[in-house]
TrEMBL record:
Residues of the YknX-like C-terminal permuted SH3-like domain: 284-350
InterPro entries: Beta-barrel_RND_2, MdtA-like_BSH, RND_pump_MFP, YknX-like_C
Protein name per its UniProtKB record: Efflux transporter, RND family, MFP subunit
Stated family: Belongs to the membrane fusion protein (MFP) (TC 8.A.1) family.
Record-linked NCBIfam families: RND_mfp (TIGR01730)
Domain CusB-like beta-barrel: 204-274
GO cellular component, one term: efflux pump complex
One GO MF term: efflux transmembrane transporter activity
Domain Multidrug resistance protein MdtA-like barrel-sandwich hybrid: 75-196
Pfam families documented for this protein: Beta-barrel_RND_2, BSH_RND, YknX_C
PANTHER family xrefs: HLYD FAMILY OF SECRETION PROTEINS, MULTIDRUG RESISTANCE PROTEIN MDTA
Organism: Cloacibacterium normanense
Length: 353
Protein backbone atom coordinates (compact mmCIF):
# COMPACT_ATOMS: atom_id res chain seq x y z
CA UNK A 1 0.00 0.00 0.00
CA UNK A 2 2.83 2.32 0.91
CA UNK A 3 4.70 1.57 -2.39
CA UNK A 4 1.57 2.26 -4.39
CA UNK A 5 1.23 5.66 -2.77
CA UNK A 6 4.85 6.49 -3.58
CA UNK A 7 4.34 5.55 -7.25
CA UNK A 8 1.24 7.74 -7.41
CA UNK A 9 3.14 10.71 -6.00
CA UNK A 10 6.06 10.21 -8.43
CA UNK A 11 3.67 9.93 -11.35
CA UNK A 12 1.90 13.12 -10.30
CA UNK A 13 5.21 14.95 -10.07
CA UNK A 14 6.28 13.76 -13.54
CA UNK A 15 2.95 14.79 -15.03
CA UNK A 16 3.28 18.22 -13.41
CA UNK A 17 6.81 18.66 -14.73
CA UNK A 18 5.71 17.67 -18.24
CA UNK A 19 2.78 20.09 -18.12
CA UNK A 20 5.10 22.91 -16.94
CA UNK A 21 7.60 22.16 -19.70
CA UNK A 22 4.88 22.17 -22.35
CA UNK A 23 3.50 25.45 -21.03
CA UNK A 24 6.97 27.01 -20.91
CA UNK A 25 7.76 25.92 -24.50
CA UNK A 26 4.42 27.27 -25.68
CA UNK A 27 5.10 30.68 -24.13
CA UNK A 28 8.56 30.77 -25.67
CA UNK A 29 7.19 29.85 -29.10
CA UNK A 30 4.49 32.50 -28.83
CA UNK A 31 7.12 35.10 -27.94
CA UNK A 32 9.28 34.03 -30.90
CA UNK A 33 6.29 34.16 -33.26
CA UNK A 34 5.41 37.63 -32.00
CA UNK A 35 8.99 38.80 -32.57
CA UNK A 36 9.01 37.35 -36.10
CA UNK A 37 5.67 39.02 -36.78
CA UNK A 38 7.18 42.34 -35.75
CA UNK A 39 10.08 41.82 -38.15
CA UNK A 40 7.75 40.79 -40.98
CA UNK A 41 5.94 44.10 -40.63
CA UNK A 42 9.22 45.96 -41.22
CA UNK A 43 10.54 46.87 -44.70
CA UNK A 44 14.18 46.21 -45.47
CA UNK A 45 16.10 49.30 -46.57
CA UNK A 46 19.64 50.50 -47.12
CA UNK A 47 20.81 53.79 -45.66
CA UNK A 48 23.82 56.10 -45.86
CA UNK A 49 24.95 58.63 -43.30
CA UNK A 50 24.95 62.14 -44.74
CA UNK A 51 28.25 63.97 -44.39
CA UNK A 52 30.23 66.76 -45.97
CA UNK A 53 32.69 65.70 -48.64
CA UNK A 54 34.94 67.20 -51.27
CA UNK A 55 33.29 66.98 -54.67
CA UNK A 56 34.97 67.62 -58.01
CA UNK A 57 32.87 70.42 -59.48
CA UNK A 58 34.21 70.15 -63.04
CA UNK A 59 31.41 69.32 -65.47
CA UNK A 60 31.93 66.40 -67.85
CA UNK A 61 30.12 65.48 -71.05
CA UNK A 62 30.62 62.50 -73.33
CA UNK A 63 30.57 62.55 -77.11
CA UNK A 64 32.17 61.33 -80.32
CA UNK A 65 34.69 62.90 -82.68
CA UNK A 66 33.44 64.12 -86.06
CA UNK A 67 35.61 65.13 -89.03
CA UNK A 68 36.07 68.87 -89.41
CA UNK A 69 35.02 68.42 -93.04
CA UNK A 70 33.47 65.51 -94.90
CA UNK A 71 31.66 65.13 -98.19
CA UNK A 72 30.43 62.61 -100.72
CA UNK A 73 32.02 63.60 -104.03
CA UNK A 74 29.49 62.97 -106.77
CA UNK A 75 29.28 63.24 -110.56
CA UNK A 76 27.91 66.32 -112.31
CA UNK A 77 27.12 64.53 -115.59
CA UNK A 78 26.09 61.14 -116.93
CA UNK A 79 28.69 58.81 -118.40
CA UNK A 80 30.93 55.79 -118.01
CA UNK A 81 33.97 55.88 -115.73
CA UNK A 82 37.20 55.52 -117.74
CA UNK A 83 39.75 55.63 -114.94
CA UNK A 84 39.90 55.87 -111.15
CA UNK A 85 43.07 57.63 -110.00
CA UNK A 86 42.87 57.16 -106.20
CA UNK A 87 42.18 54.40 -103.74
CA UNK A 88 40.86 54.25 -100.19
CA UNK A 89 43.33 55.89 -97.80
CA UNK A 90 44.80 58.22 -100.44
CA UNK A 91 45.34 61.79 -99.22
CA UNK A 92 44.05 64.30 -101.77
CA UNK A 93 44.01 68.07 -102.15
CA UNK A 94 41.07 70.25 -103.10
CA UNK A 95 40.74 70.29 -106.90
CA UNK A 96 42.74 67.09 -107.45
CA UNK A 97 41.35 64.77 -110.15
CA UNK A 98 39.98 61.57 -108.66
CA UNK A 99 38.45 59.90 -111.75
CA UNK A 100 37.59 60.60 -115.39
CA UNK A 101 34.42 59.99 -117.42
CA UNK A 102 34.35 58.99 -121.08
CA UNK A 103 34.10 62.17 -123.20
CA UNK A 104 33.99 61.02 -126.87
CA UNK A 105 30.40 62.16 -127.44
CA UNK A 106 31.09 65.44 -125.63
CA UNK A 107 34.09 66.12 -127.90
CA UNK A 108 31.77 65.83 -130.93
CA UNK A 109 29.35 68.32 -129.35
CA UNK A 110 32.27 70.67 -128.62
CA UNK A 111 33.38 70.59 -132.27
CA UNK A 112 29.85 71.31 -133.46
CA UNK A 113 29.48 74.21 -131.01
CA UNK A 114 32.79 75.71 -132.14
CA UNK A 115 31.76 75.43 -135.82
CA UNK A 116 28.45 77.12 -135.07
CA UNK A 117 30.35 79.89 -133.30
CA UNK A 118 32.60 80.49 -136.31
CA UNK A 119 29.57 80.73 -138.59
CA UNK A 120 27.88 83.11 -136.17
CA UNK A 121 30.98 85.33 -136.08
CA UNK A 122 31.11 85.52 -139.91
CA UNK A 123 27.37 86.16 -140.24
CA UNK A 124 27.44 88.85 -137.60
CA UNK A 125 30.37 90.62 -139.23
CA UNK A 126 28.50 90.63 -142.53
CA UNK A 127 25.39 92.12 -140.91
CA UNK A 128 27.49 94.74 -139.09
CA UNK A 129 29.01 95.89 -142.41
CA UNK A 130 25.67 95.81 -144.22
CA UNK A 131 23.97 97.84 -141.52
CA UNK A 132 26.50 100.64 -141.98
CA UNK A 133 25.46 101.02 -145.65
CA UNK A 134 21.76 100.53 -144.95
CA UNK A 135 21.65 97.03 -146.42
CA UNK A 136 19.92 95.48 -143.36
CA UNK A 137 17.56 96.72 -140.71
CA UNK A 138 18.38 97.27 -137.04
CA UNK A 139 16.21 94.27 -136.13
CA UNK A 140 18.17 91.99 -138.45
CA UNK A 141 21.42 93.19 -136.90
CA UNK A 142 20.09 92.58 -133.39
CA UNK A 143 19.09 89.02 -134.34
CA UNK A 144 22.60 88.43 -135.69
CA UNK A 145 24.17 89.67 -132.48
CA UNK A 146 21.83 87.44 -130.43
CA UNK A 147 22.78 84.37 -132.48
CA UNK A 148 26.45 85.18 -131.88
CA UNK A 149 25.89 85.37 -128.11
CA UNK A 150 23.99 82.07 -128.14
CA UNK A 151 26.80 80.40 -130.08
CA UNK A 152 29.37 81.70 -127.57
CA UNK A 153 27.23 80.45 -124.65
CA UNK A 154 26.96 77.01 -126.30
CA UNK A 155 30.75 76.77 -126.55
CA UNK A 156 31.10 77.70 -122.86
CA UNK A 157 28.48 75.11 -121.91
CA UNK A 158 30.37 72.39 -123.75
CA UNK A 159 33.58 73.49 -122.06
CA UNK A 160 31.87 73.00 -118.70
CA UNK A 161 30.80 69.50 -119.75
CA UNK A 162 34.40 68.73 -120.73
CA UNK A 163 35.59 69.96 -117.33
CA UNK A 164 32.92 67.85 -115.58
CA UNK A 165 34.35 64.65 -117.11
CA UNK A 166 37.19 65.07 -114.59
CA UNK A 167 35.87 64.35 -111.09
CA UNK A 168 37.78 66.67 -108.74
CA UNK A 169 37.96 66.65 -104.94
CA UNK A 170 35.86 69.36 -103.37
CA UNK A 171 37.93 69.43 -100.15
CA UNK A 172 41.36 68.35 -98.98
CA UNK A 173 41.37 65.16 -96.96
CA UNK A 174 41.57 61.38 -97.15
CA UNK A 175 39.56 59.03 -99.34
CA UNK A 176 37.55 57.11 -96.76
CA UNK A 177 35.42 55.16 -99.23
CA UNK A 178 35.51 54.54 -102.99
CA UNK A 179 32.16 53.61 -104.57
CA UNK A 180 33.09 53.33 -108.28
CA UNK A 181 35.38 51.34 -110.54
CA UNK A 182 36.38 51.75 -114.21
CA UNK A 183 33.33 50.88 -116.31
CA UNK A 184 30.79 52.09 -113.75
CA UNK A 185 27.99 54.14 -115.31
CA UNK A 186 27.17 57.25 -113.27
CA UNK A 187 24.57 59.98 -113.45
CA UNK A 188 24.36 63.44 -111.87
CA UNK A 189 24.40 63.12 -108.07
CA UNK A 190 25.82 59.59 -108.01
CA UNK A 191 28.14 59.35 -104.94
CA UNK A 192 31.62 58.30 -106.05
CA UNK A 193 34.05 59.04 -103.19
CA UNK A 194 33.69 59.79 -99.49
CA UNK A 195 36.32 62.32 -98.43
CA UNK A 196 37.05 63.21 -94.78
CA UNK A 197 39.37 65.82 -93.38
CA UNK A 198 40.66 64.86 -89.93
CA UNK A 199 43.58 67.28 -89.66
CA UNK A 200 41.37 68.67 -86.95
CA UNK A 201 38.30 67.05 -85.42
CA UNK A 202 35.11 68.24 -83.76
CA UNK A 203 34.06 66.66 -80.47
CA UNK A 204 30.28 66.89 -80.36
CA UNK A 205 28.78 66.77 -76.84
CA UNK A 206 25.55 67.74 -75.06
CA UNK A 207 25.74 70.21 -72.16
CA UNK A 208 23.01 70.44 -69.52
CA UNK A 209 21.02 73.68 -69.28
CA UNK A 210 22.37 74.28 -65.75
CA UNK A 211 25.93 74.36 -67.08
CA UNK A 212 25.69 75.89 -70.56
CA UNK A 213 25.69 79.44 -69.18
CA UNK A 214 29.09 78.82 -67.58
CA UNK A 215 30.96 78.02 -70.79
CA UNK A 216 31.87 80.32 -73.65
CA UNK A 217 33.19 80.29 -77.21
CA UNK A 218 36.96 80.00 -77.38
CA UNK A 219 37.23 78.36 -73.96
CA UNK A 220 39.89 75.65 -73.66
CA UNK A 221 38.58 72.23 -72.62
CA UNK A 222 40.52 69.18 -71.43
CA UNK A 223 39.59 65.96 -73.22
CA UNK A 224 40.03 62.31 -72.27
CA UNK A 225 39.88 59.71 -75.03
CA UNK A 226 38.79 56.27 -73.82
CA UNK A 227 41.00 54.25 -76.17
CA UNK A 228 44.05 56.49 -75.60
CA UNK A 229 44.21 56.72 -71.78
CA UNK A 230 47.93 57.57 -71.76
CA UNK A 231 47.55 60.64 -74.00
CA UNK A 232 46.20 64.05 -73.03
CA UNK A 233 44.22 66.27 -75.38
CA UNK A 234 42.63 69.69 -75.28
CA UNK A 235 40.35 71.61 -77.58
CA UNK A 236 38.60 74.93 -78.08
CA UNK A 237 34.84 75.50 -77.98
CA UNK A 238 33.79 76.63 -81.45
CA UNK A 239 30.01 76.25 -81.28
CA UNK A 240 27.31 76.48 -78.60
CA UNK A 241 23.80 75.84 -79.89
CA UNK A 242 21.39 78.75 -79.35
CA UNK A 243 18.55 76.28 -78.79
CA UNK A 244 18.29 73.16 -76.65
CA UNK A 245 16.98 69.77 -77.68
CA UNK A 246 13.86 68.15 -76.23
CA UNK A 247 15.84 67.02 -73.15
CA UNK A 248 17.02 70.59 -72.40
CA UNK A 249 20.57 69.78 -73.48
CA UNK A 250 22.58 72.10 -75.71
CA UNK A 251 24.80 70.71 -78.51
CA UNK A 252 28.37 71.98 -78.15
CA UNK A 253 31.30 71.43 -80.53
CA UNK A 254 34.96 71.46 -79.48
CA UNK A 255 37.69 71.66 -82.12
CA UNK A 256 40.73 69.47 -81.46
CA UNK A 257 43.93 69.49 -83.50
CA UNK A 258 44.79 65.95 -84.56
CA UNK A 259 48.31 64.79 -83.77
CA UNK A 260 47.73 61.74 -85.94
CA UNK A 261 46.34 59.29 -83.38
CA UNK A 262 42.71 60.48 -83.30
CA UNK A 263 40.04 59.05 -85.59
CA UNK A 264 36.55 60.20 -86.40
CA UNK A 265 34.02 58.18 -84.41
CA UNK A 266 36.19 57.76 -81.30
CA UNK A 267 34.42 58.19 -77.95
CA UNK A 268 35.74 60.91 -75.62
CA UNK A 269 34.93 62.93 -72.51
CA UNK A 270 35.13 66.73 -72.35
CA UNK A 271 35.96 68.24 -68.94
CA UNK A 272 34.62 71.78 -68.48
CA UNK A 273 35.95 73.89 -65.62
CA UNK A 274 32.87 75.75 -64.44
CA UNK A 275 33.85 76.99 -60.98
CA UNK A 276 36.44 79.66 -61.73
CA UNK A 277 39.16 77.05 -61.93
CA UNK A 278 38.48 75.43 -58.53
CA UNK A 279 38.46 71.66 -58.78
CA UNK A 280 36.69 70.67 -55.54
CA UNK A 281 34.19 72.04 -53.04
CA UNK A 282 33.17 70.81 -49.59
CA UNK A 283 29.43 70.14 -49.68
CA UNK A 284 26.63 68.00 -48.27
CA UNK A 285 25.58 65.36 -50.81
CA UNK A 286 23.34 62.31 -51.18
CA UNK A 287 23.16 59.69 -53.94
CA UNK A 288 20.73 60.51 -56.73
CA UNK A 289 19.04 57.14 -56.02
CA UNK A 290 17.84 58.48 -52.65
CA UNK A 291 15.23 60.74 -54.26
CA UNK A 292 11.63 59.65 -54.62
CA UNK A 293 10.39 60.13 -58.21
CA UNK A 294 13.62 61.76 -59.33
CA UNK A 295 15.84 64.60 -58.14
CA UNK A 296 13.36 67.25 -59.27
CA UNK A 297 10.83 66.05 -56.68
CA UNK A 298 13.12 67.06 -53.79
CA UNK A 299 11.65 64.25 -51.66
CA UNK A 300 13.68 61.68 -49.74
CA UNK A 301 13.13 59.26 -46.86
CA UNK A 302 15.24 59.45 -43.70
CA UNK A 303 15.48 56.77 -41.00
CA UNK A 304 14.37 57.97 -37.55
CA UNK A 305 13.76 55.65 -34.58
CA UNK A 306 13.02 52.63 -36.74
CA UNK A 307 10.57 54.33 -39.10
CA UNK A 308 10.85 56.04 -42.48
CA UNK A 309 10.06 59.74 -42.54
CA UNK A 310 9.40 61.51 -45.84
CA UNK A 311 10.99 64.95 -45.92
CA UNK A 312 11.44 67.77 -48.43
CA UNK A 313 14.96 68.95 -49.32
CA UNK A 314 16.40 71.55 -51.64
CA UNK A 315 18.66 69.85 -54.21
CA UNK A 316 21.55 71.75 -55.78
CA UNK A 317 23.84 70.76 -58.60
CA UNK A 318 24.29 67.19 -59.81
CA UNK A 319 27.83 65.80 -59.85
CA UNK A 320 27.83 62.39 -61.46
CA UNK A 321 25.73 60.10 -59.24
CA UNK A 322 25.65 62.56 -56.32
CA UNK A 323 23.38 65.55 -55.68
CA UNK A 324 24.25 68.60 -53.62
CA UNK A 325 21.80 69.32 -50.77
CA UNK A 326 21.29 73.01 -50.06
CA UNK A 327 18.65 72.70 -47.34
CA UNK A 328 16.62 70.10 -45.44
CA UNK A 329 19.37 67.76 -44.20
CA UNK A 330 22.16 68.01 -41.69
CA UNK A 331 25.43 66.21 -41.19
CA UNK A 332 24.85 62.74 -39.66
CA UNK A 333 21.27 62.19 -40.89
CA UNK A 334 20.53 58.68 -42.18
CA UNK A 335 19.09 58.77 -45.69
CA UNK A 336 17.35 55.72 -47.19
CA UNK A 337 18.88 54.87 -50.57
CA UNK A 338 16.94 51.73 -51.56
CA UNK A 339 13.54 50.21 -50.90
CA UNK A 340 11.69 53.55 -51.18
CA UNK A 341 9.16 52.11 -53.60
CA UNK A 342 7.68 50.08 -50.73
CA UNK A 343 7.67 52.92 -48.20
CA UNK A 344 5.06 55.34 -46.94
CA UNK A 345 5.63 58.13 -44.49
CA UNK A 346 5.87 56.38 -41.11
CA UNK A 347 6.55 52.85 -42.42
CA UNK A 348 8.49 50.60 -40.04
CA UNK A 349 11.90 49.73 -41.44
CA UNK A 350 14.68 47.24 -40.94
CA UNK A 351 18.10 48.65 -41.81
CA UNK A 352 20.24 46.13 -43.67
CA UNK A 353 23.84 46.34 -42.57
Amino acid sequence: MKKTLIYIVIAAVLVGLAAYKISSNKSKQEAEVAEVAKEVDKINVNVITVQYESINTDYTANGTFLPKQEMNQSSEISGRIVSVLVKEGTRVGAGQTLATIKRDAIDVDVSQAQNNLQNAIIDNQRYENAYKTGGVTKQQLDNSRLQLKNAQAAVRAQSVRISDTSIRAGISGTINKKMVEPGTVVSPGTPMFEIVNINSLKLSVLVDESQVGKIQLGQQVAINVNVLPEDSFSGRITFIAPKSDASLNFPVEIEVQNRGNLKAGMYATAIFQTNNGAETQNMLTVPATAFVNGVSSGQIFVAQNGVAKLIKVTPGKVYGDKVQILNGLKNGDQVITSGQINLDNGSKINIIK
